[in-house]
Write a structure and sequence with these properties.
The structure is a homotrimer.
Chain A (H helix, E strand, L loop, with lengths): L4 E16 L11 E8 L4 E11 L2 E10 L14 E7 L2 E8 L2 H8 L58 E8 L6 E8 L15 E11 L2 E15 L6 E14 L3 E13 L6 E14 L4 E10 L3 E2 L2 E2 L5 E11 L4 E12 L29 E12 L1
Antiparallel strand pairs in A: 1-2, 1-3, 1-19, 3-4, 4-5, 5-6, 6-7, 7-8, 8-9, 9-10, 10-11, 11-12, 12-13, 13-14, 13-15, 14-17, 15-16, 17-18, 18-19
Chain lengths: 383, 383, 383
Amino acid sequence: QANVTVYGVADGSFDVVRVSNTAGNAAGDNDLGNTTRVSTNSSLIGFKGAEALGNGLTAVFQYESSVGFDNTGGIGATRDSFVGVAGGFGTVVLGNLTGPTRALGAALDVNAGATGIGANSALLGKLGGYLVNTTDLAGSYPGAAPNTTTNCARSSTCTSIFDTRWKNAIAYVSPSFAGLSVTAAYVANENKAFQGASAANTTGYDVGLKYANGPAMAAVTYNAVSLGQTFAGGSKQADVSDFRVGGSYDFGIASVRALFDHARADHAGIGGKITQNVFGLGGTFNVTPAGKLLAQVYLARDLKVDGSDAKDSGAKLFEVGYEHSLSKRTMLKAVYAHLNNDNNARYDFGINAVGINPSTAVAGLNTAGATIQGIQLGLRHSF
Amino acid sequence: QANVTVYGVADGSFDVVRVSNTAGNAAGDNDLGNTTRVSTNSSLIGFKGAEALGNGLTAVFQYESSVGFDNTGGIGATRDSFVGVAGGFGTVVLGNLTGPTRALGAALDVNAGATGIGANSALLGKLGGYLVNTTDLAGSYPGAAPNTTTNCARSSTCTSIFDTRWKNAIAYVSPSFAGLSVTAAYVANENKAFQGASAANTTGYDVGLKYANGPAMAAVTYNAVSLGQTFAGGSKQADVSDFRVGGSYDFGIASVRALFDHARADHAGIGGKITQNVFGLGGTFNVTPAGKLLAQVYLARDLKVDGSDAKDSGAKLFEVGYEHSLSKRTMLKAVYAHLNNDNNARYDFGINAVGINPSTAVAGLNTAGATIQGIQLGLRHSF
Amino acid sequence: QANVTVYGVADGSFDVVRVSNTAGNAAGDNDLGNTTRVSTNSSLIGFKGAEALGNGLTAVFQYESSVGFDNTGGIGATRDSFVGVAGGFGTVVLGNLTGPTRALGAALDVNAGATGIGANSALLGKLGGYLVNTTDLAGSYPGAAPNTTTNCARSSTCTSIFDTRWKNAIAYVSPSFAGLSVTAAYVANENKAFQGASAANTTGYDVGLKYANGPAMAAVTYNAVSLGQTFAGGSKQADVSDFRVGGSYDFGIASVRALFDHARADHAGIGGKITQNVFGLGGTFNVTPAGKLLAQVYLARDLKVDGSDAKDSGAKLFEVGYEHSLSKRTMLKAVYAHLNNDNNARYDFGINAVGINPSTAVAGLNTAGATIQGIQLGLRHSF
């Protein structure tokens, strides 16, 4: 049938991960020795179509879902899913959308599909583990001091609010003028509370300006979210935002890329202003026509709370990997990732977390400051 | 592959909805000011097939699912899904089915796909918000006096038990004789309780007689459900039923349609007999070859409890809309809907409810008598 | 599109089931009289593909899901779902997999798709209802004496841990040498606990040797699982295993098959060693070119606890059925199944259980020793 195309990616890997050196515990306490698992790394299936309407207009739709085929995850419309119309004026879509901020983080990641344990979403925009996961009220934004909580179960996705798709969103993507394009997304305040009830009113926007011309790409994005709810410990409306600027250059045999990320929260539970900078650098090198080396380093600096440094609240992420293409649609890959938390930090992998989570840890033992390592050996197949 | 067809509808709209004038509260209390949202209006994806078996027999199957692509709803077999066989004798199917009563309500609705905030399912068969949602035991049928509870979360589907698909159903559809056809569905009592346990035993049937000949259609349906459980406040088995009669005529450039609905409950929590009548009238008018105006009015009369009028327990629904076809498969649409509750009523939109729900309202404030309004601007694309 | 194939099975039946003769209760108490239901018997939909990579290599993937289309079950990757690569060396896949032990049980079952109320999974490997369902920590393995608990809701799948797919698995299937092939699967210990926490560490392997040559098939399999958790009532790590040997011969007009199953648990809650043997025999006979009779008998012997017989802890399963093919892809089928529990046993159907479950039974009444019967009349269509 011509009206709909079924497509997807099956990306499976065998992982060995470990956690060690948790700060302040006796040797070995609260560590996780070598643990094996099968990961499905953002595998997906989608249904999409486009219909030419005449006059240069096109109707477009897409239902795309993650598939956790290692442990029977459900199929929904959990990834970019939308309906809309495209024409000379650009494209307008409604649905569950990746905004320009999340898109820039993924575009500058060195991993195929921006997935796996080495993905830069481990550090980007998290504000010390403070702003993790979903963009709606169902998300839990811890109200206590930064770094005291994360909510990432083992093998879960543990990305920041800015690196999560927007629900109930409408977006406009402009045409490209001399390589320049603009994207603007608005998120509806569907959860707005009744008058007199606690003031939930999550809404936001996400805008980006992008330059793409041959081998060069550069972009700047800004994502602002009014969480609207009163956090524990705070009496005011919480506002959070993320600013990113970055770019890449493709030399053919090699590529380089760099990213700066600045996250900020106001009144998000502890009353004041919290900010954090994250810097990243990555590159790839084609050692053979079918073989590509990749590496990236990301550095999350200490948080600043009302301008003062929150000591030892940052982390570092190192990744090296190798991809061997068996065809245009299929590759083997091997990755080593190393996430080094400062003594008060609890960062975890963004995709396939290890579970640095106070709620599942051994009672009485510290979960901060852990070193997380892992290797992934896998196969990625697109269809 | 010839054996299976992938098909569906992507129907996305940008809505602004509001709630006001709740009865007996101070001005503005428990109101919901203008609230934006993206709605996906019964969007769906399905997989279906038919195999000619010889001798005029055909095997048929269909797995059809709603897709809430504004907020990542899962894909299942949540809409009409079945396997069966068709032949000269008619069609027999087993699965999750729309019976003739629900089908008649939808057929006489003026909206494409009978969906959106103006759909007639806002009022049909609800018996004052008493009989909402699922047909199995998991459904919650409030046991207290009519109108004291509804269970419809914001943006949820909030239709009556008679306007919900039957689970565990088997149905027969006759061939058409001179335009006349019969449909009969039976619902299995899969949840029947063990002897000695509380007497759950939900079962029912749904029958319809339909005349369709060129521009004219008329039908009468009757749906009876034995809920079999003891409701709070009642000691007897609850039985509910719904009778509908209606028809439509298509003049080509315009169409008219009318529907009468009579719902009844015996021993459903408050001991006696509750009945309610709903009347509806709708029409469409093609202002241009691609442009269609539509409008409908539905009126839910006061409930009668043991023959006595339950004052101010009805509601009125008004809808006007415009559809502009971009192609045979794609249209733009704009709709305004206005639901006016009587002072003791808590009706809500049937598709994409606003959430007139005591459990989520401001404590101490009344939720009855509200006026609910909304506009939807959207795109509907079939594939 | 050539890259992906959509396929599946729609298998719907109308069932009448009953439960009677529960041990020790007054006549009729805790019985379930004739109850009707629609069952969807392991119906499924899948997406799969294969890509030739050159050099005899092939990339393969499959996302396969059950579809409970009688009651709107979600679509996921709940059945065999994997990505991998095949070549002269054999096949390696990662994902959610059927190991050789489960595969042998299904291969020797007489039912199409090894599904329905007569399936041999009602008795195989259950160790007296002790080891039911999922292979991960989310599974609940009752800690008390055998037979005191099962956790099977009505109409649920109620198969043993050994007859459930492995999550987080990696498997190798060898090429066939003169009819002989080997399968080996390993299951990752993804749920391993942090050091100092309770010692969850589920992991296991499943190996099989199979001979298949023309009409003859024979296989031996061994599946060992370290549950790693401390069961209620036990202080040691629990280990469970299952050994199977069986075979079949196809005479063309008829077939015969036999299976021996030996399940064992060490320290699984009650401290000692529990073992059980199950014997099965089945056959089919083609009475016409399109009509096939089928029958099977399975006998679960009493458990042995630390070498002593646990009296009246076994069960017997009898099934007779008839399949009438309407085409290569579509058949009608009729089945009668009879499960006779010993006085202390609580076996239930493996597919579409009746719900012999202490938690849902009438308080104070016994649930052991019941006789469970059912008939299924259905249609099975492959696409």
